[in-house]
Design a protein that fits this description.
By secondary structure, the protein is mainly alpha-helical. It contains eight helices and five strands, in the order βββαααααββααα. It has a domain of 190 residues. The longest helix has 37 residues.
């Protein structure tokens, strides 16, 4: 087994403790913001607009992320209401979908090309998720089911959230590797889709597909599926039809525009073989 004995708490100030997970989250935020600003500049989108979108997206992502975590662990927070307000306990889906919603609403007011920006951001988002998962590995959260595999994680520090001294599936490592693969695929697919928003839809769909199955390796929920699995199914129901319909529509529009241009003599007809 792979023993993880690193103290997940980086430092304490009184009752406040700052974990390595927090460092990973901060690095992930910086990465996705820098990625978005650089991509926006190349796409001709105002840098000021992109920065404001980040200022809107970060808190909206945090609020929804924290909210979904509280709902998922409602029994605990009903008996510990003083811990509802805090930075420990976030969800990936809440962060991504919350930030997306916040930026979408902001974009409606400033006529931001949201779909184009979402496509620009998609690779940066999944890269940020991979960075965040490094923090999860150190933290011991998101641990998997009991396992005796040679690559199972065995947490031996009492500050870890994982069961002490018990081998567990490194589900979070699997997800980190999946995120990196998706990152590479997204880079390869940039500019390949006809409709704006398609790369983001592909990202959120393929991530949800993988996440749904990976979560069966997590510590089982009494109710059956995990919260993230329910969200993954909802995302797939929305993202996959959008991806198909939007690109079919864009293809038809492209063919129609090409036919009109050819008729008007804008482009020469193709020679017959």
């Amino acid at each position: 087994m792979i023993e993880i004995g690193l103290d997940p708490v980086l430092f304490r100030v009184g009752a406040f403790e700052f974990r390595w997970y927090g460092v990973a989250v901060l690095v992930a935020i910086v990465v996705v913001v820098v990625w978005g600003i650089r991509g926006a500049r190349k796409a001709g989108i105002s840098v000021d607009t992109a920065v404001t979108a980040a200022i809107v997206g970060i808190p909206s992502g945090f609020i929804i992320s924290r909210g979904l975590h509280i709902v998922d662990q409602l029994d605990y927070y009903m008996t510990h209401p003083g811990q509802i307000v805090g930075f420990e306990g976030l969800t990936i889906y809440g962060a991504v979908l919350g930030a997306t919603l916040g930026i979408f609403i902001y974009g409606r007011f400033v006529r931001l090309p949201f779909a184009r920006l979402a496509d620009i951001m998609a690779p940066g988002i999944i890269l940020a998720q991979a960075i965040g998962r490094v923090g999860c590995i150190i933290n011991g959260c998101c641990y998997g089911t009991v396992s005796s595999l040679p690559w199972a994680f065995n947490y031996t520090h009492p500050n870890s959230y994982a069961p002490f001294g018990v081998g567990v599936h490194p589900e979070v490592l699997y997800e980190l590797l999946m995120d990196l693969v998706i990152f590479g695929v997204l880079l390869a697919l940039r500019g390949r889709f006809r409709a704006n928003g398609s790369l983001y839809a592909f990202y959120i769909a393929i991530y949800s597909f993988g996440r749904f199955f990976l979560d069966f390796l997590r510590w089982p929920e009494v109710s059956g599926l995990h919260q993230a699995q329910y969200i993954a199914l909802i995302v797939l129901v929305v993202a996959v039809p959008f991806l198909v319909v939007a690109n079919l529509r864009a293809r038809r529009q492209g063919l129609a525009a090409g036919a009109v241009a050819e008729t008007e003599g804008d482009i020469p007809p193709q020679a017959e073989a």
